[in-house]
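To: structure subgroup
Subject: Chain for Friday's discussion

All,

I'm putting the inputs and outputs inline so they're searchable in the archive.
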Amino acid sequence: MERNLLKKSYGFVLLCSLLLLTLSISSCQESKLKAVVAIANKQCPMDMGEVGTITSIIYDGSNVVYTLNMNESITDIAILKDNPESMKESIKIMFRNPAKDVKEMLKLVAECNAGLQMKFVGKDSGAEAVCELTSEEVKEVLKAESDPSQSERAKLEAQLKMANLQFPMQASEEIVIEKIELSDESVVYICKVDEDACPISQIEANAGEVKKGIVANLAAQSDPATQVFLKTCINNDKSVAYRYIGTKSGNHYDVVITLPELKKMIIKK
């Protein structure tokens, strides 16, 4: 349950944060945008883990267009389609203060007066949601330099804003995930528990095993989306917590994955 919950929560925004990397690693020195895109497109389909697959990257004369085949158990396409401005703002924030190679790619797109278009297609339903950054918006992103620490905070807040659009969510028979909150110390998943099926005292009594399961699932995930999520938490000095709250008593118990534990899960290249 915890593994799917995490992926559903941050899948969309994290996939977006990886998109430009697929171009920048291809050929940052190419002088022509068409050549860069053609090289990147030859790498498709690109597996981005359980979140989805980049099926093509093309230049249509106006935009660099990414087509993504999305796992609908993680990303609700209808929610993306119904919240275009939130989707666009989240993507713009994710590109703020980019890494050097990503910034060079953005500059190339801007110099060609091109935009970026991301077409999200549901793997099963075929439903589509499209987000487009115009050439002017790409240029605005490049100009919007900010303090790195503030940028990291904004990126995390953008992820949580998009994630919360998909809640509440039934995680299991006895647990409903209501939302994700940001506290001073943690990214907190608010989990309401049906105490007739699972008393909070039972979770507390088995907290060691519950945490062990969460840590094992996270540590086993090498896909880019999970790794970016972990790094975003670490860059913000945030642990990850599950707050289980009884629907009757209101009592709660937190299972916390600490910063040192999160750091151990980062795959070093």
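Points worth raising on Friday:
The chain has two domains: 2-163, 168-264.
The CA atoms of residues 8 and 75 lie 6 Å apart.

D.
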